[in-house]
Amino acid sequence: MNVDIFIRTYEKDLEWLKYALKSIHLHVTVYRNIVITIPNASLLSGCSVEKVIQVKDLKDGYLGQQLTKMTANLYTDADAIVFWDSDVIACEPVDVSEWFFNGRPIVYKTSYNSIETPWKPITEKAVGFSVEWEYMRRMPLVYFTDTIAASSKWIENKHGITLKRYLNSQPYRSFSEFNAIGAYAEKFECDRYKFIDTDTVELPKNKVHQFWSWSGLDSKDLEQIKQYIG
To answer: Are 57 and 8 in contact (CB under 8 A)?
Structure first.
């Protein structure tokens, strides 16, 4: 099975991306390609190992990056995609197979009854059915490429418009790509995935650290990253 690491980035995250890529090359194994999508590919002209693809953005860049992820199947023919954000740093050696269980991607989920989050009504509006779980629990997130394509198609058919038009019509930040994909996957392709309720298990150690790029890359972050990748 071919597995690609997929990153959607933009100009303000390039400093983070530098460290994310270094951590992947240092610690992560058994993937095929690192695919980086960005609205202005010339900003990454120095990349020689990764596949850099220019993508169109939306007026709202927050929704634009979600559109890119929801259509990741257009940019890679891998069997499965590991979604990796620019502010995610691999902390120690990890084989991508650790994010699968008997060939099925592992998806952690948490009941909306046990957390406070705005995503439930937003996701239900997008997919058109009741959703009881929040699926955006920890990075990285792994899905089969054809699931991503099918979930986008489902939303388009449900609303009778393209995914781009649907996203452009939504109120400020009222979409969650990973919750939409997760909800679709569990409802229609449950047997292909290993869904794990976070309230019923002791979560294994996460070998990646997700920072918060919007807060800026400060000296404390850099010191932490240095401990991971030298």
So the answer is: no
